[in-house]
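for the writeup, i need someone to sanity check this before i put it in the appendix. the sequnce is what the collaborator sent (i think, or maybe the updated version? ugh). structure was predicted straight from it, no edits. if anything looks off just tell me and ill rerun, i have time this weekend
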Amino acid sequence: MAIAVAKLLLHCFFNNRYGYFRDEFDYIACGRHLAWGYVDQPPLVPFLTRVSLSVLGDSLRSIRFLPALVSSATVVLTAMIAREFGGRRVALALSAVTILIAPIYLSAGSLLTTNYLEPLFWMGCAYFAILAIQRDDPRYWLWFGVVAGLGMEEKYSIAVLGFATVVGLLLTPQRRLLFSKWIWLGGAAAFLIFLPNLMWNVQNHWPFAELMRNLKADGRDVVLSPWQYFSQQMLLIHPLSAPIWITGLVALFASPRLKPYRVLGWCYVITFTVFVVLKGKNYYLAPIYPMLLAAGAVTMEAGIERLRQGWLKPAIVVVLLAAGAWLTPMIVPVLPVEQFISYMNNLPFKVPRSEHSHMAAVLPQYFADQFGWEEIVAEVAQAWSQIPAGERHDCGIFAQDYGQAGAIDFFGPRYGLPPALSGHQTYFLWGPRGYSGNCLIVLNDRKEDLEDMFEDVEYVGSSADNPYALERQVPVFICKGTKFGTLEQSWPKLKKWR
């Protein structure tokens, strides 16, 4: 518990160092338009964001408090799994420390993203599977289904864990559990919880599937070989923790003590294979590691006791904490930006980039996308000030992506700006909001292209250059006199799901 509290305090202290993250604007905007689904995500994170905004406000620390709290709860859940594996005090502490220092879980507690609940839901499923096997009580599979259903309302990738669990049961003596009514009731519970979002997807013609198809066709993501994917897992969880989770994986297959839980070993192998085959991003597999770290910590505790080398217990924890402190600035904004750049450039490895468009940025994308937004909104406000008061009721602000649009919606009210328009992701579903299109402030487009669509195109200026931002010097135009008909008629052509 002390380690979990320390993690919570770490995040709460440093979570306001830089700025709002691009995706955070999206979740805030979606939270203000509650629905059973969105183009790029299920409804749970926007709903919780709405609750958080209502209770805590919209400061950086406020919107990131739930991620910090959930990430800290993952520490506790991992220790609980280690205890169920038969671990004692050292195993519990070691497993908790590995979660504390893991870069991917530090990230989960530092930003509001769709990933922050994943480890808790995935390991909630693993925990109930362990209890069902250990206590020979199939009723726990019902709770497995409830957690999996909630996980589906947060991120669809937990379906891979469900698939892997079924295959893992088939490959082990626990296959007899598949004939228990409780595992089928668990599946029914998961389906019923997921059903509202499923119906939303059907009614909206499967937008998430279309989005994924478009992303694959664009070739936006960096494709990793199986070895590259595996090696980046070691970096995400922490290089010095790799021997622990690899030991845990081997023990789930080879250790007599952990033999009843071999299904979890198969879960890892199958989910790893699925994400490699589907060319998933390196962090898609991250939620599964707490159970391997717990198994590894229990196995190492037993090995140290057999060796009768008690000094190794505190030594391993101290080394892990020191190594964790060394890598923490890579994820948590503990350093001023210039110092971080110097720190990053002196690391013995390059920070992985998951998309080709991130390669040229000075900072890793998760930091770079926390800069430049207020500069963009300020330039839009400059354009807005040039619109005569009598024309403002029919002058919309069109942004190219949900980051720009969300930043305008978030910072814009202080300048008197109306909500933004965009064809990107869920903003497309919110439509043109009654604007005719005869007057638009357009961000980040080419003047030559705009002149094909409008009678009059005026370049207002570009946002002040922020050298740390992923989007630098975004141009802003005032466009009048539509050549394309009404905005309502042209809206389908503005759809941008990628």
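The longest helix spans residues 181-203. Strands lie at 395-399, 421-422, 439-443, 454-462, 475-482.
thx in advance!!
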